[in-house]
Design a protein that fits this description.
The protein is α+β, with helices and mostly antiparallel strands and about 450 residues long. It is built from ten helices and 22 strands. The protein has four domains: about 5-100, Phosphorylase Kinase, domain 1; about 100-270, Orthogonal Bundle (Transferase(Phosphotransferase), domain 1), CATH 1.10.510.10; about 295-310 and about 365-445, Pleckstrin-homology domain (PH domain)/Phosphotyrosine-binding domain (PTB) (PH-domain like, Roll), CATH 2.30.29; about 325-360. Helix 3 runs antiparallel to helix 7 (about 260-270) and helix 8 packs antiparallel against helix 9. It comes from Desertifilum tharense IPPAS B-1220. This is Serine/threonine protein kinase.
């Protein structure tokens, strides 16, 4: 039996037990006698009652951690085994990581701490940045057990993601059996079906944020249509509520497709709005702005939208439809060209040529979005030549978003792809165009 002050591998002196599970795992705070630093030692007892999958998960955790290099993930240090004589009659396997001084969010909740909206937003941002790193590895790494007890608020006030015991390197499990893991209330439905995807970690993060905001475990909150009901228990920005609701959609295709997109949406705060869902009309009809150069044609079977590039935005408008930025840019280019030509005539001529080429390219670009009854086609063209073309099943589209404040982009989201329309649309222009796209989605589903 392992005891306090016992030395493992002639190096790690056990100080105190941090936790244990019924599956035979123990976590200890230990002193590394070689470096005189505190470390965390996770131990797994290989008993006859243990499922073989438990050892596979433990080994996978060690393998994955060796390849990770992120400050807010405790660094891998060592992996070893202990023979039966030292381990009380059963062999043990050990995993050593950096020790993070601090408290888990679960401990803080149990101590009665209340988390403000600002604190929860910051926690969300830090965890999403960790998930972006994990999910964009090749192959993607899925944590699969995000919850308050696995998030440590360090003494340096940073949030750390710990316990990779349920980790999955996505490509490594294709076509093979594996243990279903996760914690009830935090793990989404598809994870219990053995179909975890990056959006599964986003669900778990969203459920964790709900716990922090309400002080109640998501498993204990009421549900409606399998969705966690929490909005009536908090007093926070409505956009933040919408964002968390999107994170915790029961259908994986309705969540944000990637952690990077979720972070982008969260940081834009007031700059994005999810339009009404199918079958629900907008509060008021928006009309085509008089200044827009966007071409829109609708028939019973097709909606076609053509968005021309505006060169250097010489025809761009602000939220009130008043041209301003293009005139300023034109004056700036003229003044800069004059100054260069006065001192370096040859350089000035080259600069003029480059400006004209850039303007010609920008002026010849256009984006065409064609929506049919069941299909989406997006083309980007330069003077009639198509250099990008995407096609998508329209049934896969589950969200139309506005992003930005002064210079707005429209985002059409599917489970795997986000399509962007417009680089610097005015507020009225973008809202009108997004409305027309949403109306088409509503119309073709009737």
């Amino acid at each position: 039996m392992l005891q306090v002050e016992q030395i493992l591998q002639e190096r790690y002196q056990l100080q105190r037990q941090l936790g244990r599970t019924a599956a035979g795992r123990q976590t200890w705070l230990a002193l590394d006698l070689q470096t005189q630093e505190f470390v965390t030692v996770k131990l797994l007892a290989f008993s006859p009652q243990m499922q073989w999958e438990e050892l596979k998960l433990f080994e996978r955790e060690a393998q994955v951690l060796q390849a990770l290099d992120r400050p807010q993930i405790p660094r891998y240090r060592d992996y070893f085994s202990i023979d039966q004589a030292l381990g009380g009659g059963v062999p043990w396997f050990g995993l050593v990581q950096d020790y993070i001084p601090g408290h888990s969010l679960q401990e803080l909740l149990e101590q009665g701490q209340h988390f403000s909206e600002k604190q929860v937003r910051q926690i969300a941002i830090e965890v999403l940045e960790i998930l972006i790193y994990l999910h964009e590895l090749s192959p993607p790494v899925l944590h699969r057990d995000i919850k308050p007890s696995n998030l440590i608020l360090g003494e340096d006030k940073r949030v750390y993601l710990v316990d990779f015991g349920a980790v999955q390197a996505q490509a490594a499990v294709t076509g093979v059996t594996f243990t279903v893991v996760g914690t009830s209330g935090y793990a989404p439905l598809e994870q219990f079906w053995g179909r975890a995807v990056p959006a599964s970690d986003l669900y778990a993060l969203g459920a964790t944020l709900i716990h922090l905001l309400t002080g109640v475990s998501p498993a204990e909150l009421p549900q409606k249509d399998s969705k966690i009901q929490f909005a009536d228990r908090v007093s926070i920005n409505r956009n933040f509520v919408n964002w968390i609701e999107t994170m915790t959609e029961i259908a994986v295709e309705k969540r944000f497709a990637q952690a990077r997109l979720a972070l982008e949406m969260l940081k834009s705060n007031q700059g994005w709005t999810k339009l009404k869902s199918k079958g629900q009309p907008l509060l008021r009809k928006l009309y085509k702005p008089s200044y827009t150069r966007i071409q829109l044609e609708r028939s019973p079977t097709e909606l076609e939208i053509v968005i021309p590039e505006l060169g250097f935005n010489l025809s761009s408008h602000n939220a009130n439809g008043v041209g301003c930025s293009g005139l300023f840019i034109g004056y700036f280019i003229f003044a800069l060209t004059t100054a260069i030509s006065r001192h370096w005539p040859g350089l000035g001529l080259l600069f003029i040529v480059l400006v004209l080429v850039r303007f010609a390219i920008a002026s010849g670009q256009r984006t065409t979005l064609r929506l049919g009854r069941d299909s989406l086609e997006l083309k980007r063209q330069l003077w009639g030549w198509t250099y990008i073309r995407h096609q998508e099943d329209l049934n896969q589209v589950f969200g139309v978003f506005l992003q930005g404040r002064q210079a707005v982009k429209i985002m059409i989201q599917t489970p795997v792809t986000t399509y962007y329309l417009g680089r610097s649309l005015g507020n009225q222009e973008a809202a009108w165009l997004a409305q027309e796209i949403q109306h088409w989605l509503n119309y073709r589903s009737e």
